[in-house]
From TrEMBL:
Native species: Adineta steineri
Keyword set includes Disulfide bond: no
Annotated protein name in UniProt: beta-glucosidase
Catalytic activity: Hydrolysis of terminal, non-reducing beta-D-glucosyl residues with release of beta-D-glucose
Alphabetic keyword roster: Glycosidase, Hydrolase, Secreted, Signal
One family name in Pfam for this protein: Fn3-like
Length: 159
């Protein structure tokens, strides 16, 4: 229920259990299903396919809420925006956190959230230790929503 609780975490846990507070945090790591391989790394497809059967219990950014936002209580929700670069000249991570927003919602309330991305969000540090942006396929993920887009070479502007 709590990730790395500190000395004063007992009152916080009590507030959660009795319904005084609705937790809305997200995991900063990937949590493996079994502890015989103590690693919290975000595994790439090639590492999983090469006989390294890695079962993930909770992936990076996972989090639960105790409200459905339909009841009588206010709740907080953390919305995360991830970008996946499908191919680049160096091996990309599975996904990178590029934006987040924490919203407080009253019962049955809805809010629209806007994320603004720029070229830096699609770039990476290349082999020559400078920021690079390469054309290719990207996937944007917000919650359970995904959108694909292709960045063309004509769309890349040097700074």
């Amino acid at each position: 229920m709590m990730f790395l609780p500190g000395m004063e975490s007992d009152q916080t846990l009590v507030d959660v259990v009795i319904g005084k507070y609705n937790p809305s945090g997200r995991l900063p790591i990937t949590y493996p299903k079994y502890n015989y391989r103590l690693s919290t790394y975000d595994y790439k497809w090639c590492e999983v396919l090469l006989d390294n059967a890695i079962d993930v219990e909770f992936e990076f950014g996972h989090g639960l809420s105790y409200t459905t936002f339909n009841g009588s209580r206010q709740g907080d929700h953390t919305v995360l925006l991830f970008i996946s670069d499908i191919y680049r000249s160096i091996t990309p991570p599975n996904k990178e956190l590029k934006g987040y927003s924490k919203v407080s919602l009253n019962p049955s309330e809805q809010q629209q959230i806007q994320f603004i991305l720029d070229q830096t969000d699609l770039s990476f540090i290349g082999l020559n230790l400078t920021r690079e942006t390469e054309p290719g396929l990207f996937i944007i993920t917000v919650g359970s929503l995904q959108a694909n887009f292709t960045l063309l070479a004509d769309d890349i502007h040097s700074d």
